[in-house]
Specification:
The complex is a heterodimer of chains A (242) and B (143). By secondary structure, chain A is an all-alpha fold. In chain A, 68% of the residues lie in helices and 0% in strands. Chain A has a single domain, classed as Cytochrome c oxidase-like, subunit I domain (Cytochrome C Oxidase, Chain A), CATH 1.20.210.10. Chain A has helices at residues 11-15, 20-48, 60-94, 103-111, 113-123, 135-139, 144-172, 185-216, 230-238. In chain A, α3 runs antiparallel to α5 (113-123), α5 packs antiparallel against α7 and α7 runs antiparallel to α8 (185-216). Chain A is globular and about 70 Å long. Classes of the chains: A mainly alpha (242), B alpha+beta (143).
């Protein structure tokens, strides 16, 4: 047997592919890119805190913005897409199917991530990755907070689409000879976490939508000055964290 | 399967259950202590606003940015906020509770030693959050 090296494919073939290994690779590339981007912000934060007083970051608001984008990037643009990278690559193989159940939906779910990342990075909001109201309603300046909210809404849709794909792939596309108890543990973990995402993300999305309408001044869900309660947002936001 | 022994697994399960029960009991006890405010505790209203703390004693006297209490006495803080979320924290006495606009959150402590301690905000509240500090002075009883 001779080992034949395959000629590397051009990058655009991978980018426009809907095959699960290619989409998994794209997830991996984007999540690692965001890991290094978010990590470089962490280096800046640590360098700034190395000594008391101002070191490399001009003012406290810039520091707060860097801190927020760092946290948001590593949670929503690194950890979650990285898990999707592993799942996209291995789950169809583990359940012995040719691809994910909905390949195009899978590619769409991935391609939502870069624009969301751009919104979060260009917005450069300052209210930490929790966006706690009422600060995020009454004090967070400019369009930064709105861009952050829209970025996270896009990521939420992406997560739900990816989770639906995993659930259908595992439950409906597994090999007929394979019982549910014979599915490898990694696939089981993706099944359970996907079910949690499907339940939890809509709650988070609702909290974000309510936060946006509060910012627009048409509602007061989380604004005590309008009879709202900030704790409600934390319940909606934290609910999706597992 | 004959000859198969699974006692190590049962020991593992028992150890995990015992640990969980112990942690739960400890947490229950800690919660009971935190909730049980002594009857003779003096009330101090701690108000957070961007970016300083105001303290109002039972006799109506107010302090801004600093708080004087007497050693050996219990104090109950009623923590409120007038603008955004803050978090009232005396790090050395493990006092930590959120200041949420529209709510009154309570926490108590009894300083046991004369000294000075930092008071700080532990919830991001804007531009000068990092400098929303105060000083707790624990002094000898005056009478």
């Amino acid at each position: 047997m001779t080992l034949e090296l395959q000629k590397p494919r051009p990058i655009w073939q991978i980018m426009f592919s809907t095959h699960h290994t290619d989409v998994g690779l794209l997830y991996l590339i984007s999540s690692l890119t965001f890991l290094f981007l978010g990590g470089s912000l962490a280096l800046g934060i640590r360098a700034e805190l190395f000594l008391p007083g101002s070191q490399i970051i001009a003012d406290s608001m810039t520091f707060n913005r860097i801190f927020t984008v760092h946290g948001t990037t590593l949670i929503f643009l690194f950890i979650i897409p990285f898990a999707s990278a592993v799942g996209n690559y291995y789950v169809p193989i583990m359940v012995r199917y040719k691809d994910m159940a909905y390949p195009k939906l899978n590619a769409i779910a991935f391609w939502m991530i870069p624009p969301a990342g751009v919104l979060i990075w260009l917005g450069f909001a300052d209210f930490t990755w929790y966006a706690t109201p009422p600060y995020s309603i009454i004090s967070a300046p400019g369009p930064a907070a709105d861009m952050w909210i829209f970025g996270l809404k896009i990521l939420g849709i992406s997560s739900v689409l990816g989770a639906l794909n995993f659930v259908v792939t595992i439950l409906k596309c597994k090999h007929p000879d394979m019982s549910i108890g014979q599915i490898p543990l990694l696939a089981w973990s993706f099944l359970s976490s996907s079910l949690i995402i499907i339940v939890a993300i809509p709650t988070f999305a609702a909290a974000l939508l309510m936060l946006l309408t509060d910012r627009l001044g048409v509602s007061g869900f989380f604004n005590p000055a309008m009879g709202g309660d900030p704790i409600r947002y934390l319940h909606g936001h934290s609910y999706h964290l597992p | 399967m004959s000859g198969h022994s699974n006692w190590p697994e049962w020991i593992y399960v028992a150890v995990v259950i015992a640990l969980m029960a112990w942690v739960g009991a400890e947490a229950w006890e800690a919660e009971r202590l935190v909730e049980h405010v002594p009857a003779d505790a003096k009330t101090i209203i701690a108000t957070g606003q961007q970016w300083f703390w105001t303290f109002e004693h039972e006799d109506g006297t107010k302090e801004i940015g600093e708080l004087h209490v007497e050693v050996g006495k219990a104090y109950k803080f009623e923590v409120v906020s007038t603008d955004v979320n803050h978090s009232f924290n005396i790090h050395d006495y493990v006092v930590l509770i959120d200041a949420i606009p529209g709510r009154v959150n309570t926490v108590w402590f009894a300083p046991d030693k004369v000294g000075e301690h930092d008071i700080q905000c532990r919830e991001y509240c804007g531009l000068i959050h990092y400098n929303m500090r105060g000083t707790l002075y624990v002094t000898e009883p005056t009478s």
